[in-house]
Amino acid sequence: MSFDFSKLLSVAWGGWTTTWPTQLLALIWLAWLASWVGASFWQGRTQKQVLTLESGRYRIPILVGGILFTPWTTEILNEKPLWVFSNAGVYITALVVLAGISFTWWGRLHLGKFWSNTITHKEDHRVIDTGPYGIVRHPIYTGLIAGMLATGIAVGTVTAILGAILISLGMWQKGRMEEVFLSKELGEDAYGAYCRRVPMIIPFLSPR
Fold first, then answer.
1. Which of 86, 95, 97, 146 is most buried (most C-beta within 10 Å)?
2. DSSP code string of the chain
3. The model's pTM
4. Per-residue confidence (pLDDT) for residue 8, from 0 to 100
5. What residue ranges are annotated as transmembrane (predicted)?
């Protein structure tokens, strides 16, 4: 009995990811994901990190949001979008998504070896407050939240929008936990002063 890879492909790549023009957004996110995972090997040695059990406070909403965000959920529920963007509307949204993921890359490259996918204290860790980190304290989360919310709105289904919101809330929670952790590890005088000077996620807002 031979395995039908076409069926697997149709499940893995379906729904709003194959319907133009929202397919464009899926291609942008796939390109970002591939590059992000590929660069994950470039990071410094971890000295200390938040326990896995504690990290569930942000991992769970991100996981649930990710499931809701996928086109598979839309297909299973046979959802119809609340609205349909024109090509021009999706192109504008695509620019927002590109700007968001470009901001994430600026933040990651600027952070260098101190970057980690989890909340960690790297060897020789110090406060980075230049570049995008002089605009917001969490530029990677800022870019991802902007891109996710823009994509959810463009897709227009209830699950995609709810998924984008849950992912955003999870990233906000992760940012809060990271700040408590780094304030203890790097010192309130150093990291606390930085938090009082630079907005957390939304540029130009008052810090804290």
1. 97
2. ----HHHHHHHHS-GGGSSTTHHHHHHHHHHHHHHHHHGGG--PPEEEE--HHHHHHHHHHHHHHHHHHSHHHHHHHT---S----HHHHHHHHHHHHHHHHHHHHHHHHHGGG--SS-EEETT-----SGGGGT-S-HHHHHHHHHHHHHHHHH--HHHHHHHHHHHHHHHHHHHHHHHHHHHHH-IIIIIHHHHHS-SSSTTSPP-
3. 0.86
4. 43
5. 20-42, 82-106, 140-167
